[in-house]
Every structure is written in C-alpha cells, then in structure tokens.
Recover the amino acids of this structure.
C-alpha cells in the first residue's frame, strides 16, 4: 500500500473503506445473480443486501489488514440449486469480479471530475484513487484460475463436462499452487508472480481510466 505515497491515518481509513465497499459489492453481486438464477439460499440467509456486516469474513478481513491477503467475504451460492446449474453458476460467479470492474470505472469517472477541482490532494481524490486501484486488484486477483478463487470456478463452468471433471480432480493441486504463489509474493522481486499478474496490469488499466 506504500505505492500510494506516505502512509497515514487518512490513507488507512481510505484503504479499509475501499476494502469494505469492494468486498460488499462483490459478494452482493454473487448472491444477487445467484438468486436470480434460482438459488434461494441468498434470500433465506439475508444476503441480498449491501450491508457489509452480512457479507464480511472477519478473520479473512483481519488477515487482509495485517498482511495484505485474506478472504474478505463469502457467498453461499451453489450450482445445483440453480435452474441452469452450468450457465447460472457461471453468471453468479463472474458477477463478483465484474462488479469490481464496474466500481473501478465509476470511481475513475468521479476522480476525473473531482481531482481537477482540488487544490490539494485531499481525502476524496485520494479515496477515489485507492477505490480504483483496489477494485482493479480485486477484479484481476479473482480471475486467477486457482481454487478457491472465482477464476477457477469460471473455468469449471466454461469447460465441457469431461474436461470439467478433470479440472475438478486437480482442485487440490490448484489450491496448493495458489498458496505457493501467495508465499512467493512475500519474497518479492521476480518471484512475486501474483504481483506481476495483478499490480502492473492494475496500474495500466487505472492509467487508462483516469486520463
């Protein structure tokens, strides 16, 4: 997070607020689209809301605050409860990361309007800047095809049945690969594969959005 400049209480508040908003919209999108696809569980569990307290995974959120990684929230959707298990599940899973991309675009539009009017950086432009970056990171991070990320489930839904069964049989190895990538990210440098896949592309997309 030091990529944003000198760390401050204001920046910490901005990061936590951006994380709560990004997580809440992400999980709400999963639940809402899953409900539209026929899964009654999100409605039964009161997940069709933008209240972050309903969606938050407290342990995962604390891990994010402390080390930068963590499962921020959860969505109790399942393919077998949907009218069309394959395509309904694909829509529900993809809705999460796509909602973060939409949030990043909205924040970028607001940033382009507000930033030129600010004589100093100020809280709002800084918060919007972090919102753009954080939601792009969530978007790209969740597209990585490793279990348990959304990208793994998206590939599962897109594959024909025979290949999908093979993909599922590799689930545990995919999880180990993901955990290994997280460990490498703490080494840094050229070993930080997650950083290469996410940080650089996130800044490139952000530069396009705010110009």
């Amino acid at each position: 997070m030091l990529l944003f400049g000198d760390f401050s209480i204001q920046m910490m508040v901005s990061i936590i607020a951006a994380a709560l908003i990004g997580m809440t919209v992400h999980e709400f999108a999963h639940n809402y689209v899953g409900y539209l696809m026929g899964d009654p569980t999100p409605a039964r569990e009161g997940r069709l809301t933008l209240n972050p307290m309903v969606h938050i995974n407290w342990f995962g959120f604390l891990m994010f605050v402390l080390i930068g990684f963590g499962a921020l929230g959860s969505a109790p959707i399942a393919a077998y409860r949907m009218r069309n298990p394959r395509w309904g599940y694909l829509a529900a899973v993809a809705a999460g990361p796509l909602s973060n991309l939409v949030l990043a675009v909205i924040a970028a539009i607001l940033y382009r309007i507000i930033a030129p009017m600010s004589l100093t950086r100020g809280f709002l432009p800084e918060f919007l800047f972090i919102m753009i970056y954080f939601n792009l990171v969530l978007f790209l991070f969740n597209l990585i095809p490793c279990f348990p990320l959304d990208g793994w489930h998206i590939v599962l839904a897109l594959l024909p049945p025979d290949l999908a069964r093979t993909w599922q049989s590799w689930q545990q190895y995919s999880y180990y690969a993901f955990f290994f990538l997280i460990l490498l990210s703490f080494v840094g440098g050229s070993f930080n594969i997650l950083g290469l896949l996410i940080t650089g592309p996130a800044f490139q997309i952000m530069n396009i959005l705010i110009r």
